[in-house]
Write a structure and sequence with these properties.
Neuraminidase; 5-stranded antiparallel beta sheet; 4-stranded antiparallel beta sheet; 8 helices; 16 strands; elongated; TPR_rpt; Tetratricopeptide repeat protein
């Protein structure tokens, strides 16, 4: 009884016992598995892993309960994560549904918590190498993806589309050294495939599957917008042209309207095999550009061509107004 009491007092004086697995060493054979899914027998763990760029730190996480009886979408059973420095577990924790882990060269790490609820929501979490929290940011939307600079200074995450939510499609940028959110935006260039943090300037670069990359300032300002506009127009993609048109409040400058016309003409040359609605949309946009350039007879002819393809394309009233204006 005395031994039990003294033992209890000793633990109380030294603080709470560390979580299971903390300060435990793991065999290199388990850690050197190059696959994304790993088995760590010492931790009774099967889950995901990601390494820091310098190879020092490994972040492990499992979107399932400790018993291994339930995983993925569920209503209970906390997931678990571990941070390993070399072969030593230095941080352990639990959140509802840990996913998309990132770890920096200094051990700073991030996770996206997909939460138990079926509602559109998520939580972005950032921690120091000792497991202490830096940032907890909740979203009224699911989280699409995240990024972390190699030095652990900056992080980003972007939400999925969530109708009627102010977080819908929002990209949020964090300075983890200062422990603050520095800015956010809904990127005109869309959801990125991955993120870079150039060492020579304070920006976040959004990278896309076709190799394109566009810089955003830490406050969310789109720094490479002109470059993106030119790249989008060069593609001749009618939906990108529509997006550019709307970004101006449906009132592009005459200079931009001319550039849009060139892009739309290039699209329409090769659009014969496309569905009538898509071709009609391109004609609708072309007619709108002609209106901005005050070539009203040409705009009317193009609107009529669009209506012949798709009577519901949305320019019937405008065509009638132009018919009266031009006396056609």
């Amino acid at each position: 009884m005395l031994k039990w009491l003294f033992g209890a007092n000793e633990r109380a004086a030294g603080g709470p016992e560390p979580p299971a697995g903390a300060r435990q060493r793991i065999s290199r054979q388990s850690l050197d598995d190059a696959s994304r899914i790993v088995h760590i027998p010492e931790l009774n763990f099967i889950g995901h892993q990601v390494r820091s760029a310098n190879g020092r730190f490994i972040l492990l996480w499992r979107d399932g309960n400790d018993a291994g009886t339930v995983g993925g979408a569920r209503q209970s059973g906390l997931g678990r994560y571990y941070l390993v420095d070399g072969d030593l577990v230095v941080a352990v924790g639990q959140v509802e549904r840990p996913n998309d882990g990132r770890v920096a060269n200094n051990g700073t790490f991030t996770l996206n918590d997909w939460r138990f609820t079926s509602e559109l929501c998520g939580m972005f979490l950032a921690f120091r190498a000792d497991g202490s929290p830096i940032i907890t940011r909740t979203f009224a939307a699911n989280i699409f993806d995240s990024g972390l600079s190699d030095d652990g200074r900056y992080a980003v995450c972007q939400a999925c589309n969530a109708p009627n939510s102010e977080d819908s499609s929002r990209l949020v940028i964090f300075d983890l050294e200062a422990g603050i959110e520095t800015g956010s935006c809904v990127p005109e260039s869309g959801w990125a495939a991955r993120y870079e943090f150039p060492a020579d300037r304070p920006v976040v670069r959004l990278l896309y599957l076709k190799g394109e990359g566009f810089d955003y300032g830490l406050d969310g300002t789109f720094l490479d917008r002109d470059t993106w506009v030119e790249a989008s127009l060069a593609k001749g993609d009618v939906y990108l042209v529509q997006k550019l048109f709307r970004a101006t409040g449906d009132a592009p400058s005459p200079e931009l309207a001319n550039r849009l016309l060139i892009s739309l003409d290039g699209f329409l040359v090769n659009a014969d095999a496309l569905d009538p609605h898509t071709r009609a949309l391109a004609l609708k946009l072309k007619g709108a550009c002609c209106e901005i350039l005050e070539d009203f007879p040409k705009a009317l002819r193009i609107y009529d061509a669009a209506l012949a393809l798709d009577p519901k394309i949305g320019v019937k009233r405008r065509a009638e107004q132009l018919r009266k204006l031009t006396g056609s």
